Amino acid sequence: MGIVSKGAKCNVEGCDKDGTRSLNTTKVENAGLRVNSTGKKTVLCKDHYKEYKKESKDDRDLERARYDKF
């Protein structure tokens, strides 16, 4: 069982919704979300996960491009 299935709450400051995704804390902070988690993983609710995806789209595209074959 993971953190989300155990009923973890969203780690973004000011949010108390149930978490749906667990992501790397440094990647979430680099996307501009203020997180109150100190561990390796951060739990995000559905709304904040959507915001994270919008903010980190360019970074994720660059990361995928590194693994594409020519």
Gist of the model:
Helices cover 39% and strands 11% of the residues. It has 70 residues and is α+β, with helices and mostly antiparallel strands. The chain starts with 20 loop residues before the first strand and ends with a helix.
Task: Summarize this structure as a short list of keywords or feature phrases.
3 helices, 70 residues, 2 strands, 39% helix, alpha+beta
Structure commentary:
The chain is of the alpha+beta class and 70 residues long. The protein is built from three helices and two strands. The protein has helices at residues 25-30, 46-55, 57-67, and strands at 21-24, 41-44. Strands 1-2 form a two-stranded antiparallel ribbon. It is elongated. It starts with 20 loop residues before the first strand and ends with a helix.
Secondary structure tally: strands: 2
Percent of residues in helices comes to 25-40%
Structural class: alpha+beta
H and E string? EHEHH
Cα shape: elongated
Poorly predicted residue ranges:
none
Note the main sheet: 2 strands, antiparallel
Number of helices in the DSSP assignment: 3
Give the neighbour order of strands across the main sheet: 1-2
List the helices and strands and how they pair.
Layout (H helix, E strand, L loop, with lengths): L20 E4 H6 L10 E4 L1 H10 L1 H11 L3
Antiparallel strand pairs: 1-2
